[in-house]
Description:
two-stranded antiparallel ribbon
Amino acid sequence: DAIKIRIKAPAVEGAANKExxxxxxxxxxxxxxxxxxxxxxxxxxxxxxxxxxxxFEEFAGKLEKK
Length: 66
């Protein structure tokens, strides 16, 4: 399964990765240091790992209902 996130930051010098981490951290109430790139750090398609939070469970529940 995957979700698509559009980031406005350019893919220059890691700006897009930093913006993605900031977005995930704020959206799912996860510390930035807990978000890890599993693959795709230099690619458009990325796999990230972070702790399960109530906010993410709620988000995932909404996706399942669609």
